[in-house]
Amino acid sequence: MKKIAKWGLVITLFCIMENSWANSNDEQPIYRFYAVHDDSLNDSQFITISSDTLEVNTLGEIHLAYDIEALDAHPNTQVLYAGSGDQTDQKGVLYTVDAQTGVLTEIGYTGFREIEALSFHPNGTLWGWAKGKGLIEINPQTGAGKLVAPFKVQVEGMTWDNEGTYLYAAQDTYLWVYDGQQVKKACDLPGHTEALEMLPDGTLLIGVHGQKTLLSFKTFNLKTCEIVKGIDIPTDFDDVEGITWLKITPEPGISLAQAPQTALTIKEGSTDYLSFNISLLKEDGIPYQLAFSQTITPDVDGIAIVYDGWWKPGAMSITLDERVTGLKSGTYTLTSTVTIVETGESASQTLLVKVVTPEELNKLVLMPPTSYPGGIKIGVPTQVIFAGSCRTRGKLPPVLTLEEVTEDGILIATLGELRNDGTNGDMIAGDRTYSGTFTVTSTVEGKKIYRTAALHNGQRVVSDIGSLLITRFPIIDSVPLNLNNWTSDPITGISILSDKIIISFNEGTSPDRIEEIVTVEGAIIVGMIPSIEKLLIHFSGDGTVEFVRKLVAVFVGTYPEVEYVEAVFKTELFSSKSYVPKDPKFSLQDGMKTVRADETWLIARGNERGQIAIVDTGVDSSHLDLTNVKSGINLLDDGIDYMDKANKDGILGHGTLVAGIAAATLNNEEGIAGVAGGSPIVVIKAVGNVHGVDSLALALGIMKATDEFKSPIINVSAGIDLEDGEKLHGGTGNMALEHVVKHATELDLLVVAAAGNDGESKEFIPCAFGEVLCVGGSAIQEKGWFTKQIEKREPNSNYGSWVDIAAPYRAYSTAPHNDYRYGEGTSYSTPFVSGAASVLLSMHPYMTPAEIKERLIKTGKPLPGSQIGNRLDVFEAVFNGSFETGDLSEWSKEGKCLNVTEQGPIRPIHGKRMALCQIGPKYGRKAILTKTFTVQPGVTQLPIEFHFEFITDAYPELLNNRIYDTFVRFTFSPPNGQSYRIIVAGVADHGWSLKPTTDIDLGGNQTVGWIGSWGLMRFDLPVTEGIGTFKVELLNDGHNYFNAAVLIDKFQLKHDDAP
Is the pTM of this model over 0.90? Predict the structure, then answer.
């Protein structure tokens, strides 16, 4: 580890002293009051109240539809806790509240529908009042509550005294007291009481519901039952449901924020830029020294750092710019720390810096080969389709070579070529999947091992190994037709197969021993699921869930060779309802506009590299809007192909709606458009009217999409309750469904799945698996009489930390028999995201599933209190117009250009981030930011709109100067070769005004000018199909004496006031 920099300065911090409402002096502790305001019945806003000025400030954003009724702080940890009422989807839930941001974190359900009040005992136990039930004690770690004293009085506020002897509760104008034995009346209260809190001096603080726009508090003497003091605060936050206080430690605070990426990749010999903001959180009038240091691990001189600190006495923030130069190929951890020397308080940030050679940046990565079928019978010659795929930023190899090898990689034989031209078993020409058909036979049970190889830049590249199973057991590559003996537990409602289970044996267990174990338990082997090496076995029982549960326990408990056993579960299609409108048009596809797919289609669409597998009920490939269905398979053995048109009103319409949302054909004048119109669709029918949908079928469907079709995007709009699955699962291994998901991820394929429609936080799989991109449902909803519509979680969508991203819950799409209809459910949210992933992969075939997942999540639109992640924004994901990726992805740069969250007082106009380019004596005379994009077929005009800010310390020195200038220039070059200079803003002849240098960090002289707050540029430009560029140039003309910066944000291809 190498310490590379240390920087010190002396700065004065001015601390805001907040006194308690009791008389105080400088030696007494400092307290801050926190309260929760009820807005529009069930919307909750946390606020802070200054005890000396009575200033009321909001704490974070409003929590829509959370109905927070109770608030208190832990006496030891000072963590804030809140409880919800019953006017919300999250009834009776216990939360923690971030005291700095107001962010809520769910702990758990208390077991009671409405929590009216909370109070911590001095010993740290948490007590609450449940409406209609009485006094309860709550576990702060789990949220679980238990009834202590039944009492049907409706309580609005509650607090323990400071000794923990008495618990006081307010009911309108009555004060009740609990002494550990019983609840009895203590005093009459002065008005309708909404909140209670015990102050440090033993005085009771009462929050009274008074007149509108007036927040009323009174301090109350419990011995005399008299008011000590009354306080009325003019504010719109006039309906407080709970109040508490925290002890504030009067020490200086410091924070360090780096430019918001967590990783940086640069070429050897090239330079990139970082920016740090050091913010002082408190002030107390005392001078302190700050020390800034950085370390690099490992210490091998792999990167070089040059930094420039800007500071002025009295400033409350410091901008530290840094140049990072890659010297030697490798991966390095850069740790930056700022410390207040006198107190030792510090803040740190880490950045992973990867230095690569040009060859490494364009290296070829080959995925392990897969095969269809994934296994063959011993001694039987079998036609096998092998497939391999690759990832590279450079040129794709023309062919891959398939080789049989030992487990140690020693070559046994070269089988031949895998091609990417649509011949010899290859399905789609030009995608990243290479295929070929070969005859394979073996007389030995076990595995044949294969790899692929290719020449890239004159070097031989090989993949990791893949395998083909050789077995005596029948191969299962479709769902057996006789899966019809379903049974349900009358208590839990779990529905499973009563005569079949899936079993996995530990590696090394011989086939003879497997047969012996299965036979001893009176079962027979139905067959082997080859890719995951699991057996489906059949047994005779009494048809009950309990019999299956006991059999699972016998296998796991008796035989050490058994890794795990699981039942086959009924799963759900996450579709709520559908209906057919009279006039199907694209204008009915509100969801496409919500996710900004319509903007995206101007410059990016799906192609053969973004193939999507729809694991569902099948797809009506004869639909005129689904001409891109390339292939399919039916796993159900029901005598029907993968088409989805047997019953246009029933379950068989599900897959066709899903396919249309993901990738219905664009610009064919046939009704609608899909997010990734142009991307191929592969259909895997795993659900039918008779068979329904089950965990085995879903696992086989994902396996097919992985091994046979190598689909880079796999859409699964179905799932099962994880808790149900775990109830009938024994052993230590993964469930079959999780195993196939991991298998797909290892092969660079992304599974996108639906969260479910129960309106609950319970987890559904495969959505809840970490590798899956899990999709919840969003909807536009009315907030109130006088407010505009807002977008938030659709109440029926499942939610929780396991949900990654949201998309519209309701969608208009294709239906069987060339029809169209609306569908509702997370089933239809999911293909919005699958389509977006397909467009990204079509543009950047080298992106990994993790990178696609991260990009879509980062660039989504935050939703208020959603617990379903950000809402999908396709345009932002592919264009990065608001720079929410945390870097300058999709843009190229020359000079100092980087992604920042602030520049002095300037904040992003949209989202949390913006782009900045800077020039000056330390950075050079020019900085250029360029966006290259492809105008799509049929597009004749681009509606361009963006915001910019221009600041420089060349003002007023260069005002009216005709020799030198500092200016910014925006140029658009459409595909037709003609360039449009959109605007040139220079100091010499542009309207400017002064800003103090303490406000804007440029590192130059004492005068800084700017053009005003966020200029808006909007125009319509004629274009033709092809590659165009947009360029931002910041230049010092004829000199390099002054510093300047331009900021760009909210670049979009639409006008905000357009219909």
Answer: no
Identify the residue with better confidence: 320 or 602. 602
Nearest CA to 321 out of 299, 306, 331, 337 is that of 306
CB atoms within 10 A of CB 32: 17
Contact 544, 526 (CB under 8 A): no
Answer whether the bond into residue 200 is a cis peptide, omega within 30°. no
Instruction: Dihedral sign for Cα 404, 405, 409, 414, please.
Output: negative
Tell me, yes or no, whether 730 and 872 share the same domain.
yes
Catalytic residue among 89, 477, 616, 953: 616
* CA 293 centroid distance within chain: 32
CA-CA distance, 216 to 235, in Å (whole number)? 10
In a domain, 870, yes or no: yes
Burial per residue of 450-466, b for 16 or more beta-carbon CB atoms within 10 angstroms, e otherwise: bbbbbebeeeebbbebb
DSSP three-state, residue 525: strand
Q: CB within 8 A of 304, min separation 6: which ones?
A: 324, 325, 327
Counts for the chain of helices (H) and strands (E), in that order: 12, 70
Q: Mean pLDDT, to the nearest integer, of 1030-1056?
A: 88
Residues contacting residue 408 through CB under 8 Å, at least 6 positions apart: none
Domain that holds residue 544: 486-569
Tens of pLDDT along 754-810? Answer: 999 988 888 899 999 999 999 999 998 754 333 456 788 898 999 988 999 999 999
From 654, 691, 743, 947, active-site residue: 654
Alpha-carbon gap, residue 987 to 1037, rounded angstroms? 11
In the chain, the N- to C-terminal Cα span, in Å, equals 57
pLDDT of residue 770: 92
Task: Verify cis geometry, omega within 30 degrees of 0, for the bond prior to 766.
Answer: yes
pLDDT band at 417 (very low <50, low <70, confident <90, very high): very high
Mean pLDDT of 1009-1018: 80
List the beta bridge partners of residue 243.
Answer: 35
Cα-based angle 607, 451, 425 (whole degrees, multiple of 5): 45
Say what the pLDDT of residue 1058 is: 58
What gap in Å lies between CA 836 and CA 676, rounded to an integer? 7
State whether 765 and 746 are in the same domain.
yes
Do 549 and 629 sit in the same domain of this protein? no
Query: Could you give the number of structural domains in the chain?
Result: 6
Percent of the chain at pLDDT above 90? 40
The DSSP element (H or E) to which 705 belongs, if any, is: helix 695-707
What are the tens digits of pLDDT across the range 528-566? 998 888 999 999 988 888 899 899 999 999 999 999 898
Which residues is 399 bridged to in the sheet? 419
d(CA 712, CA 752): 11
Domain end, chosen from 825, 852, 879, is at: 879
**CA geometry: angle 134, 139, 140, nearest 5 deg:** 115
| Coil/strand/helix, residue 230 | strand
Q: What angle do CA 261, 267, 270 make, to 5 degrees?
A: 90
Active site residue 329: no
In a domain, 539, yes or no: yes
Q: Taking the CB of residue 180, how many other CB atoms lie within 10 A of it?
A: 10
827 catalytic per annotation: yes
- Measured CA to CA in angstroms, residue 788 lies from 18, 60, 780, 863 at distances of 37, 20, 10, 15
Give the 3-state secondary structure of residue 748: coil
Q: Which of 827, 838, 842, 866 is catalytic?
A: 827
**Same-domain status, 331 and 379:** no
> What are φ and ψ of residue 698, in 5° steps?
-65, -45
| 257 three-state secondary structure | strand
CATH code, 45: 2.120.10.80
Inter-residue contact 842 to 606 (CB < 8 Å) = yes
Q: Are residues 723 and 772 in the same domain?
A: yes
654 is catalytic: yes
